[in-house]
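Example S7 (structure tokens).
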């Protein structure tokens, strides 16, 4: 049986990380759930790039941060925040693809 990430995480969010990057946080409720997601979700830079439909080289940082029971990654924007044609100036509406990630 598998669960969707949205049902296991305390927080899934995205936000600006400077003008040229958006950072994502997946914060799990407890250590056991964090370890399950970290070890079994298959989340890494390549899978996140595929999930978001972007080139892997746009992922500038990917890490499991054990003290916070969190997985964090950062994506380089194609256009600077606030640039004409940029669709999410604050980077806060980019996390939805993570919701349905299946966790065995």
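Recovered sequence:
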């Amino acid at each position: 049986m598998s669960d969707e990430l949205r049902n296991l995480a305390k927080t899934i969010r995205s936000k600006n990380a400077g003008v040229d990057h958006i950072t994502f946080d997946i914060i799990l409720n407890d250590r056991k759930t964090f370890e399950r997601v970290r070890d079994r979700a298959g989340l890494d830079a390549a899978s996140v790039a595929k999930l978001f439909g972007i080139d892997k080289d746009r992922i500038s940082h990917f890490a499991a941060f054990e003290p916070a029971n969190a997985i964090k990654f950062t994506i380089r924007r194609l256009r600077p925040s606030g640039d004409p044609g940029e669709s999410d100036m604050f980077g806060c509406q980019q996390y939805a693809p993570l919701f349905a990630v299946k966790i065995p």
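Notes on this example. Residues 44 and 88 are 24 Å apart (CA to CA).
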